[in-house]
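AAA+ ATPase domain-containing protein
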Amino acid sequence: MYSKGNQINGSFIVMVCSISSSDLVSKWMGESEKLVSNLFQMARESAPSIIFVDEIDSLCGQRGEGNESEASRRIKTELLVQMQGVGNNDQKVLVLAATNTPYSLDQAIRRRFDKRIYIPLPEAKARQHMFKVHLGDTPHNLTESDFEHLGNKTEGFSGSDIAVCVKDVLFEPVRKTQDAMFFINTKDDMWVPCGPKQRGAIQTTMQDLATEGLAAKILPPPIMRTDFDKVLARQRPTVSKSDLDVHERFTREFGEEG
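Tokens:
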């Protein structure tokens, strides 16, 4: 994440405007520059405010490239003018931007950002917390030790990787319910899949229960640590060592550690 702007002090409300690069692109001649200008004007009128641009590399790539269009050049020029104006006018507007490909940024755009901060992959404690956040209120029997195990086991995983992992795990109780051959009828009159040796186990299937009109009373089992182990056995991190090397090299040349 890369940031620019003056320090905002005091306990007052700050307006935050989060946009993607596509929000500033229009097929109509001159409309994109107007959108950029209006965005900064709105931020100044509502100061103190923060403008956050996600995937800024798709909007502000290197100028002079063969596939660069005239419209793209005009957008970059307008963005450069507006960002320089924020600093010169000493207004309480903070501009943040994020990119996964910092080397593709235009040099002039890069210079507009006073801080170029490298945000590394989450550490074990952060990954442990992410698993908790993504699970939310979903029924599970994981202990604090289990979450610590997951945090340590997912070295090199990004926040997105963890989100994908949890989404996959959420289907495990459904798979177990669909494949179950034995169910137990709980005190709440709910049918929960179980093993054949569990006390009170009845040999039946989800399809049989549905046929008997009990589909609404079928309760998938809570998520277990083994469900995560099963998913993690086939999932790999999406960020490679070479990807990290690029960011670390850029940080050594132009940025600073987060």
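The two ends are 9 Å apart (CA to CA).
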